[in-house]
Specification:
alpha+beta
């Protein structure tokens, strides 16, 4: 089980990861720690997409699921932005005081559900 950002980098397809705190609408997030490649972009994308409102993000996922009849392959609590080569995933840590984001290569075809569960275990305050 991943408990540090370094542990996430060992998982298949993960090229970068970061822990960050939302600072409010329109403000840059506070990056606690980052490992690997392209993490500033990943944090910016995740924070801009949901404006730190995971309830809204999960509602949008539920609506998408209902109307497209697609089964969700990641938890509703996760923010998932799929790009052509890389995807960004962000979740709140189980502690709840920070978020964890990963930049993952799509070609690796990771198990996103398992990956988000690992991400939630990371405690960046250690």
């Amino acid at each position: 089980m991943a408990t540090k950002l370094e542990d996430l980098l060992k998982l298949e397809g993960v090229v970068g990861c970061a822990a960050w705190r939302p600072m409010g609408r329109g403000k840059r997030p506070q990056i606690i720690d980052a490992k690997g490649e392209m993490m500033e972009h990943a944090v910016d994308m995740a924070s801009a997409w949901c404006e730190f409102d995971l309830f809204t993000a999960s509602q949008q996922c539920a609506i998408y699921e209902r109307y497209t009849k697609h089964e969700r392959f990641y938890p509703a609590e996760a923010i998932f932005i799929r790009g052509s080569e890389y995807s960004v995933i962000a979740v709140y840590s189980k502690k709840g005081d920070h978020m964890v984001s990963v930049f993952v290569a799509n070609y690796a075809r990771p198990n996103f559900w398992k990956l988000t569960e690992e991400m939630m275990e990371v405690d960046a305050n250690q």
